[in-house]
Design brief:
By secondary structure, this protein is α+β, with helices and mostly antiparallel strands. Helices cover about 30% and strands about 25% of the residues. Strand 23 and strand 24 form a beta hairpin.
Length: about 700
Amino acid sequence: MKLKAMHFPVIMLTALSMLVEAVVSDEPQQVLPGCNYTCGDIQIPYPFGIGNSTTLDHTTCYMDSKFEFELTCVNSTLIRGENIQVLNINPQGQMEMKFFVSHLCTDSSSNNTEKANKPFLGDPSFTISSTENKFITVGHDSYGYLNSYFNGATYSTGCLTRCYDCDPKMVLIGNNTGKCTGLGCCQVDIPPLMKNITLKTFRFPTSTLSQDQEDCSYSFIAKQGSYNFSVDHIHNLPNQSFPLVVNWAITSESCLIAKTTDSYACRENSECVDNDPDYEGYRCKCLEGFEGNPYLPGGCTDIDECAKNLHGCKNSANCINTAGNYTCFCPVGQTGDGTKEGGCKLPDRKTYIYVIIGTILFLVIVGIISFFVYQKRKYTKLKSKFFRKNGGSILEQKLLQRKDSSIIANVFKESELRKATKNYDENLVIGRGSFGKVFKGELEDNRIVAIKKSKTIDESQIEQFINEVDVVSQINHRNVVKLLGCCLETEVPLLVYEFVSNGTLSDFIHTNLENNPTWKIRLKIATEVAGALSYLHSAASIPIIHRDIKSANILLDEDNTAKVADFGASKLVPLDQSEIATMVKGTIGYLDPEYMLTSQLTEKSDVYSFGVVLVELLTGERPFSFGRPEERRNLATYFLSCFKKDNVFEIIEDGMLNEENKQEIKEVTDLAAKCLRLRGKERPSMKEVAMELETMILNVEGNQHYEDID
């Protein structure tokens, strides 16, 4: 029992120590880890500090490279610099320290005068508080100066006390109130922003001193209320130093400038302050509702007003802490004002029913909104998935590498094209085929476009598809339909082309009877198509084989200008190759027989298809039709048969052939026959075809010119 009794005080002390540590740990941290917080009974908040941390990195306990914040602790006395004693540090921006007195004494018996000392306080980030201090001079026939040096200039203030032809003793007897009234003691306010200061006291020449009497002058800065004047102080001031208050700042920079530097000191949940006229520079303070040290890593922490009973709620049970603030609420099932005692009440039965109905409606609305939000997120993820699957990242990389921004293809959003086509309204379909549909659309900038919506795409060919989009979008030829861009946010990519208003060449030949037969227009169209194909084969940055030249893929504008369209089957030809092994694609009646047999695609395959288009322009017949006799089903074969028999004029469309154009038509039939040769090597190139047609056009225009002169 005795042993237990002896241990009881130890246990109590240990428990009390643990309780004190717990309470202290709840207080906001004020120093860096491993640093002393006190020297004697003075607390030292960061950015001030003593020495280095005891942590592994041994970092300085004061703000990096700011030696004006470095302090030392000598025998429980806090020292700044070499010999300035610090009395108190206010984290909000003030420091109280002891500063020395400038003194000067004169002995009348020996007529000796000491040289006045000149205390100096040099701190570019510290200013003398103009509201907390006074500049004081004590003495008979004395005056003192307070000088400040900054921005290359010197600023001074001071005061004097003097008696002319009077008995000093009588004057001083009249000023024994303890106040510094100007008789034997004078004081002045200190102007704002004084820093890097010196002070010095002086004496006026006097003959009023008694024999063997010593008279002194003292000048000093003293904190308001720290000095009470006494007439004895004229001969002997008992203090060698007085407390003064300085304003400290991190730097002399403004907040605006400091925020742009790497050394900006204000941490999380704090703000920069530079609007005090009594100091130059900036300081940091915690935001309202936060506490701690705004200079430490991590910054200020939230004040839990509910736990610390700093709230205005009726009790802590009705309080919810929020970041920097708190809210008051009523318990579940009650309504009213949670800030007042008795402010929360149970609703009556009618109100209770309304509350239940309102709660149910609220939950239903929340459920509906959540469903739509979920669907929208799901739809967004799906679009993102399609974008990646369809090679969006590859295309974006290619577009970024483009040097000429004027020919960059647009990557349209799916919502943009859906709006342009009124949700893909069937009434806006302007073309159909095995590939899919073409819609007429109007973009937000009022541009009319054609939007091609394909049925499927070979996922293994995505990279090639993106490459073709990239290349074709760079084609800038008046007789090639301009690819404006694509949309990759759908399961199958959408292509956006310029809109060409006058239908296809197929419509022009076979259904638009108003334009038939018009040989000059047809010759012009043939020449324009040949020029476009010649450009694709020879002048494009990468040669392009169209692979599906037909009258349905040649569009006409309002002036019947031809534009080659639909590059869905096109192939890019590597510069070191003249042919490509590929699966046969194209349209019956236009397909190159050699390509069908060998699967070797060359530029001459387009030449053959163009030859069929020429025959189509000459005859007005469709390239293939089961409605015709067997020997005439394939138009190209029948044309070559007639050409060999030299009766090709018999199949020229009725009403088109006349004496004026007979020679031109004969030359075009000869050219078509060359294009339709079975062996590709024997066919002319598209460049040769284009040149021959252009020569014909020039001859026609020349003849017309001479006729007009006649």
